[in-house]
């Protein structure tokens, strides 16, 4: 079982409120190229290096000392990486606030700003379930391309190009509609979230 520290969600109780937060709430499969090559850390490194390079060129036009130019590049690059990772390439989050006092569940999404997506009456939530979804590789040519590039660089991406299984945590409403609030490949974590939310809602 995963420890709480490495789960892909956070959940906490505050008086009559249960707050559930996760960056994993989409059921759509990731792009093969996106998951194989692109990630937020890599994008942050590229952005930081680009900005540092521009500053270096500007500095080189005004300062002849190569040591100073190198220090400026290093400082900008070092400071730029955490900035881009924290504020520009941060994960989009879903926050679901179950409020027993107001008999309402509010669903928020946030990236740079927090936005109310939907408000649902708790009485309309009839049950909560877990659904298994299997994602097949839809672009085998892209998989082969990425694997070829990875091997050329001596890199192996564990699990890349394999069939992916997701477990979706869903709220089922009285009107027959569903809301996916969590999507993860670790079934035990989805079960834990399911049990805590179900216990709070008493359904």
Q: Calculate Rg over CA atoms.
A: 22 Å
Q: How do the strands line up in the largest sheet?
A: 1-2-3-4-5
* Main sheet summary: 5 strands, antiparallel
Order of helices and strands: EEHHHEEEEHEEH
Low-confidence stretches: 31-36
Total tally of structural domains: 1
Percent helix range: 25-40%
Gross morphology? elongated
Which band does the percent of strand residues land in? Answer: 25-35%
The structure class reads alpha+beta
Query: Which CATH class?
Result: Mainly Beta
Count of helical regions: 5
**What is the CATH architecture annotation?**
Roll
Based on DSSP secondary structure assignment, what is the total number of beta strands?
A: 8
Q: What do we call the CATH topology?
A: PH-domain like
> How many angstroms does the end-to-end distance come to?
25 Å
- Mean pLDDT reading: 85
Which SSEs are present, and which pair or pack?
Blueprint: E1 10-14, E2 17-22, H1 32-36, H2 40-62, H3 66-88, E3 93-99, E4 104-110, E5 114-121, E6 125-135, H4 140-152, E7 164-173, E8 178-184, H5 187-201
Antiparallel strand pairs: 1-2, 2-3, 3-4, 4-5, 6-7, 7-8
Helix pairs in contact: 2-3
Summarize the structure.
By secondary structure, the chain is an alpha+beta fold.
């Amino acid at each position: 079982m995963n420890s709480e520290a490495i789960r892909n969600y956070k959940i906490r109780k505050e008086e009559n409120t249960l707050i559930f937060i996760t960056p994993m709430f989409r059921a759509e499969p990731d792009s093969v190229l996106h998951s194989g090559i692109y990630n937020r850390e890599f994008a942050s490194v590229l952005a930081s290096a680009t900005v540092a390079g521009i500053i270096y060129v500007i500095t080189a036009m005004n300062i002849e000392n190569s040591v100073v130019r190198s220090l400026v590049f290093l400082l900008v690059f070092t400071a730029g990486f955490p900035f881009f990772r924290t504020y520009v390439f941060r994960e989009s989050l879903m926050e679901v606030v179950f409020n027993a006092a107001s008999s309402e569940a509010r669903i928020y999404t946030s990236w740079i700003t927090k936005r109310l997506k939907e408000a649902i009456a708790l009485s309309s939530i009839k049950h909560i379930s877990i659904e298994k979804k299997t994602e097949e590789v839809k672009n085998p040519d892209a998989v082969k391309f990425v694997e070829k590039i990875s091997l050329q660089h001596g890199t192996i991406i564990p699990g890349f190009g394999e069939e992916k299984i997701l477990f979706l945590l869903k709220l089922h409403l009285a009107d027959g509609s569903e809301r996916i609030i969590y999507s993860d490949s670790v079934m035990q974590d989805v079960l834990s979230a399911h049990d805590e939310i179900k216990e709070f809602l008493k359904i």
